[in-house]
Specification:
With 396 residues, this protein is an alpha/beta fold. The protein folds into two domains: 194 residues, Glycogen Phosphorylase B (Rossmann fold); 188 residues, Glycogen Phosphorylase B (Rossmann fold, 3-Layer(aba) Sandwich). It has a seven-stranded parallel sheet with strand order 5-2-1-6-7-8-9, with helices on both faces. A six-stranded parallel sheet has the order 12-11-10-13-14-15, with helices on both faces. A two-stranded antiparallel ribbon has the order 3-4. Helix 1 crosses helix 15.
């Protein structure tokens, strides 16, 4: 083959469009997947639901599967990877992480076979602000990552904090290429025409009056996402603004019943849960909201629901632990950033956001869409193309 091989545990709805676009641009690539469970359908523990993504995750690029038996991420094995790589003999290998056994096996093969190793991972030094590492663990982690990154020839940076992370770990700036984290917006009805079509109808569905505030939370209803902070924060917001506030929960998970009970007990607050919603059906719900809140405590190395919201012209309020905060939550323009774990700080951030967003709603929506347009599938794929050309590879 002598092209680029990408090793990934399973087809991911945010990655597959990038591989497809890079292949269409002429990069000779093949993706080796550890499993096809995300295509077959699987049970997600944090979503507490079984589902399959509604987008084509396999068309437009070459790929192969090592196994069809794994039912979830944790079950994916690395068996057969060395054989597949030996058969392909790629010129370069792109790894997407270092935690999973398949990622580690891919990195080990590239090093032992003296192949060019690239890295495009979800990395952030602030992703654990809610639960800091012990000092000795942090030193050990830094030592291991510095060793790994010395072997990486090109790092495809998904955002500002990833770039800062690589620099702090000693990687030269000239090894880095921009390949921003993006969502495939072709599934959305996200333009102003879509807003006019869906906003009033969907707000009526959840019982929201025109003057009410609708705050959306999208994703897994888990503690690490900070969903449990919202009932108190929204009650404070209702009192400060003198308006009823609706929490629109787009998704599901283990905290659903707890948060519903808390909202029901708080004056001025109500909650509507949609259950799991696939990408093709998200737009009506985003158009109904006045802002998106993502108050994550930890483990939010990016927060792609922020991209979703901005595509719909919806400003965002995120915690400092959300990886995309410095890129996408620009205070006074597209969002606000609050302290991790504080309902009070969350209330203040939402109040600030609503105040400037409502002063010129059309300009706010335009700012959101203009900013997120820089974080596109095309821009992400351009990073892969640039890395391939920089390594001396020819396009097809």
């Amino acid at each position: 083959m002598n092209g680029l091989v990408i090793v990934e545990t399973h087809p991911v709805q945010y990655h597959a469009p990038v591989w497809r676009a890079a292949a269409a641009a002429g990069v000779p690539l093949q993706v080796i997947y550890g499993s096809d469970f995300s295509v077959r359908g699987y049970h997600d523990r944090e979503f507490s639901a079984r589902f399959a993504w509604d987008r084509d995750l396999l068309g437009g690029y070459d790929h192969q599967f090592l196994c069809h038996q794994a039912a979830e991420y944790a079950q994916v094995q690395a068996r057969g990877l060395d054989g597949a790589l030996n058969a392909l003999q790629p010129r370069a290998l792109l790894a997407l992480g270092y935690w999973h056994r398949l990622d580690r096996a891919a990195i080990a093969w590239a090093r032992s076979a003296s192949r060019s190793l690239w890295f495009r991972g979800e990395v952030s030094e602030v992703s654990r602000l809610g639960r800091p590492r012990a000092r000795w663990l942090q030193r050990l982690r830094c030592w291991r990552l510095r060793r790994l990154y010395r072997c990486v020839e090109q790092a495809l940076c998904i955002g500002t904090r990833a770039r800062q992370h690589y620099l702090e770990m000693g990687m030269p700036a000239e090894c880095m290429i921009n390949s921003p984290y993006a969502v495939d917006a072709t599934a959305f009805d996200d333009a102003e025409e879509g807003r006019q079509r869906w906003r009033e109808q969907t707000r009526t569905t959840i019982g929201a009056e025109p003057q009410d505030v609708v705050v959306a939370f999208s994703g897994k209803f888990s503690r690490r996402k900070g969903l449990h902070l919202l009932p108190e924060a929204l009650q404070r917001l209702s009192q400060k603004m003198g308006r009823r506030v609706h929490l629109l929960g787009i998704g599901q998970g283990e905290l659903r019943e707890q948060v519903q009970r808390e909202c029901a007990q708080r004056e001025g607050v109500s909650m509507h849960c949609t259950g799991f919603v696939n990408q093709g059906q998200l737009s009506p719900w985003y158009h109904a909201a006045d802002l998106l809140a993502l108050p994550s405590l930890e483990g939010e190395t990016w927060g792609l629901v922020v991209n979703d919201a901005l595509h719909h012209g919806l400003p965002v309020v995120v915690s400092e632990a959300v990886g995309c905060a410095p890129d996408l939550a620009l205070p006074g323009r597209t969002g606000e950033i609050g302290e991790v774990g504080s309902p009070q700080a969350l209330t203040l951030a939402m109040e600030r956001c609503l105040q400037w967003a409502e002063q010129d709603a059309a300009a706010t929506r335009a700012n959101c869409r203009n900013l997120v347009s820089l974080f596109s599938i095309e821009a992400a794929a351009k990073g892969v193309v640039s890395a391939w050309q920089r390594s001396g590879g020819m396009l097809r």
